[in-house]
Specification:
Radius of gyration: 24 Å
Bound molecules: uracil
Number of strands: 8
Strand order of the largest sheet: 3-5-4-6-8-7
Distance between the termini: 62 Å
Shape: globular
């Protein structure tokens, strides 16, 4: 393939990613790429070298392996957000038709919180109350979530942003299907990209498994410091039980509290005053 052909395909992918999700994913940001031709110049065949001539051949270390040679990097692209804002992402979400969940939703539920959150809290998907109001975590589980966050000095009005894996309610509150989560993943990526949270708290199995791209169960994942690989960065992430699970089974409250205390320890270690505004508002 020629460098022009590669560049055309790359630009098409870049354009369609921006068009669908309203932002360029990390894969298309940063350094611009100069592509090489895969065409090997024709060189008139030489007679087979004698064993003496072999000694003067180009050393192996200088030979270019077309498969593994990295693309050359030329110039820098501007590192601003290209006019993308949380509002522009929400507006894209509001008209999204990327999956079947859009057929049955009342409102999209993009997320809510502060513009520069210390922590991004990520749940599974809207339930009935969220679908009615267009706001995340406002039903019974949401009220418990607010209490859990308040216990460690966090809230959606001072230092958090709350979002979900899918932005439309799955019928009967079923778990989102993998294709639905995938169809929505670009919006979550865009939100993380713009908000740049220092930490992520994943609420429940669906959030943790989709973020970490794993099938490991929540009992194993929860309470451990993990990392979300995001472009070239790693965002520290902890998973804990979903508040709905705590409402169904009281016995999960104690381990969830252990997780939250461990989460708070690190938040404090990195930024001792992270909850100052939260406590002054109480
Ligand atoms: N459960 C979630 O995972 N998210 C919400 O927004 C509400 C309930």
């Amino acid at each position: 393939m020629t460098s022009d052909e590669k560049e055309t395909i790359y630009n098409l992918l870049k354009l369609s990613s921006s068009w669908v999700y309203g932002y360029k994913s990390p894969k298309f940001q940063g350094d611009s790429i100069a592509f090489d031709d895969d065409v090997i110049e024709f060189v008139e065949p030489k007679p087979a070298p004698s064993s003496d001539a072999m000694a003067t051949e180009v050393p192996q270390s200088e030979a270019i392996d077309i498969e593994s040679a990295p693309p050359k990097v030329t110039g820098q692209q501007p590192s601003d957000n290209g006019g993308i804002t949380i509002e522009s992402i929400c507006s894209k979400i509001s008209t999204c038709r990327n999956c079947v969940l859009s057929n049955t939703r009342t409102n999209t539920v993009p997320g809510e919180g502060v513009q520069h959150p210390y922590v991004m809290v990520i749940g599974e998907g809207p339930g009935e109350d969220e679908d009615k109001t267009g706001r995340p975590f406002v039903g019974k589980a949401g009220q418990l979530l607010d209490k859990m966050l308040a216990a460690i000095g966090l809230s959606r009005t001072t230092n958090c942003y709350i979002a979900n894996i899918v932005k439309c309610r799955p019928p009967m509150n079923r778990t989102p299907m993998p294709d639905e989560a995938n169809a929505c993943a670009g919006y979550l990526q865009a939100q993380i990209h713009i908000l740049k949270p220092k930490f992520i708290l994943a609420m429940g199995r669906t959030a943790a498994q989709n973020l970490l791209k794993t099938n490991t169960g929540i009992n194993t994942l929860r309470g451990n410091w993990l990392e979300l690989q995001f472009g070239n960065e790693k965002i520290p992430l902890m998973a804990t039980f979903h508040p709905s699970a705590l409402l169904r089974d009281e016995r999960l409250k104690a381990p969830a509290w252990q997780d939250l205390k461990k989460f708070r320890e690190k938040l404090l270690a990195e930024k001792p005053d992270y909850a100052e505004v939260f406590y002054t508002q109480q």
